[in-house]
Write a structure and sequence with these properties.
There is one protein chain. By secondary structure, this protein is an alpha+beta fold. 30% of the residues lie in helices and 27% in strands. It folds into four domains: 49 residues; 71 residues, no CATH class; 83 residues; 93 residues, no CATH class. It contains eight helices and 17 strands. The strands form five sheets. The protein has a seven-stranded antiparallel β-sheet with strand order 5-7-1-4-3-2-6. The longest helix is centred in the N-terminal third of the chain and has 27 residues. The protein starts with 6 loop residues before the first helix and ends with a strand. This is Phage tail protein. Belongs to the Mu gp47/PBSX XkdT family. InterPro entries: Baseplate_J-like_C, Baseplate_J_M, Phage_Baseplate_Assmbl_Protein.
Length: 353
Amino acid sequence: MFEHITQEQLLDDALEMVKSNVDKREGSIIWDALSPHTIQLYELYLSMEGMLQEMFGDTASREFLIRLCKDRGISPYSAEKAILKGIFNLDVPIGSRFSLDIHNYTVTEKISFGVFKLECETPGMIGNNYFGPLIPIEYIDGLTNAELIELLIPGEDEEDTESLRKRYLDSFEALAYGGNRKDYLDKVHELQGIGGVKAYRIREGIYNVKLVVLDATYNVPSSTLLESLQTAIDPVTNQGEGLGIAPIGHTVLVKGVSNTVININFPNITFDEGFEWADVEIDVQQMVDDYLLELKKTWENSSPLVLRIVHLESRMLEINGIIDVQNTTINGTASNFTLDNDSIPKRGEVTNV
């Protein structure tokens, strides 16, 4: 807004207001008197510009955006710790601690004999990525085998600035109230492990609301996550009583998204000199994974997801060693592939035959 204002311009404007019979040259008394003032005035304009940017949600920095969000009852989602499954040759004590690579884990709950839930002591998504042999931090008599095998509830990083900004701006467009659709979406997103959710009105047995969820890693949620969500939203033992997030009278069914296996064939690839399929296969698989992940991140706001051949082929041309690609098929058909509303893509075979 004030980008056209400079200190030199402010000084010139001030000198213009001084009578012409006064010496206004650099080094004169009047010039020396006005110059420091116009520097301070220029700094004031810069401060005003910064203040204006921080006053509005679409331009505010994170610090001031958080302050603006408080006026709307919104706060950044905090980082959450991953919950994982570990297997042991015996029942280990609740609270016992183990290490794996750079992370430590605490045993929190018994699932069955020798099978326990463990919480990563480091918050964030980094706790979702480590599996393998566990080393006890303190001696446990008789322990010969300890292994981390499965992610149950994904850990999450603290909400990033742009996601928070979107929630703030969206809060002006629809009112979350009394179990309406936005109320469900907002409150479910506050729970750990959620990457996306869709809400439906249904008539299915006792249920009149269905929530379909995607986990925070943008994959099919585990049964453990679904159980914890069901309990938080509408406990099975007292369904419809309003003892969870759902209002009284709402009987809610919590389901996970399903996977649709996607097989992609690139039968006609023109390779650069010295390249063949074996040289680019890993890069092509990674490209497909990246594209599918981008789609899964839009699942919540898409009905339904569509895999587009033109997107695949254009990304193929960015891979070193590939000059051209034609006649691509998805699940045996040379056309775009539309998934069901509650389905996400999972990479199957990627071939060049």
